[in-house]
Amino acid sequence: MSRLQLDNIHISFGALHIVRGVTLELKQGEIGCLLGPSGCGKTTLLRAIAGFQALQSGFIHIDDSSVSDEKHTLAPEQRGVGMVFQDFALFPHLNVEDNISFGMRKASAIERSKRVDELLDRIGLPGYHKRFPHELSGGQQQRIALARALAPKPRLLLLDEPFSSLDAELRERLAVEVRELLKKEGITALLVTHDQQEAFAMADKAGVMYQGELLQWDTPYQLYHQPKHQLVADFIGHGVLLQGTVNTEGSLASPLGMLEHPSLLQIPAGTPVSFLVRPDDLVPDPTSRLRGTIKARGFRGAHNLYTIELASGVEILTLSPSHEEFTVGANIGLRPEFDHLVVFAADHCELPGFHDQAPTVQPLPTVLPKTQSA
Ligand SMILES: Nc1ncnc2c1ncn2[C@@H]1O[C@H](COP(=O)(O)OP(=O)(O)OP(=O)(O)O)[C@@H](O)[C@H]1O
User: Fold this and answer.
1) CB-based contacts of 299, cutoff 8 Å, min separation 6
2) Which residue in 33, 77, 27 sits closest to 186, CA to CA?
3) Which molecular-function annotations from GO does this UniProt entry contain (predicted)?
4) Among 284, 257, 270, 245, residue whose Cα is nearest residue 366
């Protein structure tokens, strides 16, 4: 169980700056997740923490010792770091027991056997000692790969898209199981994934990388509800960004109506801003004057996610329980129900002061539904 600290890491390949000024911390026993579009530098950062990639500048500390800085890179095998990759490749000619204990060659036979028993119990596969990898399902193989990485009790575990070859349902189940296992083992871990649900299910802290920068490192809750950058708001969860302009009364003219919030008074009139509208910020309400036409419906199990075109032509999203179905093409009313605002300036960074209070929304002048005005 260890603390991981990255301070202002820069990594380049020739003239290409792949990781730019990344700073993050994981406390002992915390699980972190790195999200971000393909090619943003997640794997490169993980390789640097494992010791396979040198830094241009910055430093990496595990506990209180520096393992990488611009002058030295401690060899991977001296870091006490375990790794699990997407192509986890168990040794096909070794049975489960020997696969798991592979990295424990210095331990006694009794210690190895005790640890294998303990880990097989923890991953829910007791008695699987003598099976060979080809006799296991994909999910079972991935659990064994995890047990193999955990067997020598690493100080830190790095996981690079460990579940991406598995189907969605199994992935979600494994993410929860792996979190429980890591917590029981008390291991500090950093996971790279494309899958937000996986990150949300596993992480104490998560971050979004974009073109080598870590835009935000926070709890999953804060990434979703309080994104500090427009790109984070865009990347995490569903939602749309609506444009508006602050007027002289300190309110915001927007496609939803006139938004009022005390913090708007601090912003000069005429300033263009954008604000985040999540699907749950707008509730279907037949009596509302804000109306739109349903363009698409996406089934999400418990909910349907609707894309709605407002009279202004702007598209927004809303959710409704899936037993309460609206037809595509129907005109419906929507009631804004924000409990806070997330507002971005023209530089895409969040403007402060909008989290503590809900805005009020003054409705727009009545617009007749298209079907009635035709
Ligand atoms: N050894 C290398 N030499 C040159 N460029 C590299 C090297 N390794 C990675 N890159 C480049 O660095 C960028 C980041 O790669 P990286 O694998 O870290 O991205 P990623 O965020 O993990 O992507 P993905 O989600 O697709 O795995 C990519 O543009 C990649 O082409």
Assistant:
1) 322
2) 27
3) ABC-type ferric iron transporter activity; ATP binding; ATP hydrolysis activity
4) 257
Per domain, the residue ranges of the chain are: 4-227, 238-365
pLDDT tens digits along 196-255: 888 988 999 999 999 999 999 999 999 999 999 999 998 998 899 999 889 888 889 889
Q: Mention the CATH class of domain 4-227.
A: alpha beta
Q: Strand, coil or helix: what is 118?
A: helix
CATH superfamily ID and name for 238-365: Nucleic acid-binding proteins (2.40.50.140)
Q: Probe ligand 1: pick from 11, 38, 44, 46, max atoms within 8 Å of CB?
A: 44
How many angstroms does the Cα of residue 43 sit away from the middle of ligand 1? 7
Residue nearest to atom 2 of ligand 1 (CA): 13
Strand partners, 103: none
Query: Taking 50 as the threshold, does the pLDDT of residue 371 lie above it?
Result: no
Q: Which amino acid is at 18?
A: I
> What residue ranges line ligand 1, CB within 6 angstroms?
13, 16, 18, 36, 38-44
Of 347 and 374, the one with more pLDDT: 347
Give, using CA atoms, the residue closest to atom 24 of ligand 1: 38
Residue 364's contacts (CB-CB under 8 Å, 6 or more residues apart) are 256, 257, 258, 289, 290
Distance 40 CA to ligand 1 centre (A): 7
Does pLDDT of 368 surpass 70?
A: no
Which pLDDT score is estimated for 372? 38
44 Cα nearest atom in ligand 1:
18
Edge to edge, the sheet with strand 331-336 lists 282-284, 331-336, 291-300, 303-310, 315-321
pTM: 0.85
Question: Has residue 328 got a pLDDT over 90?
Answer: yes
Across 57-74, average pLDDT: 94
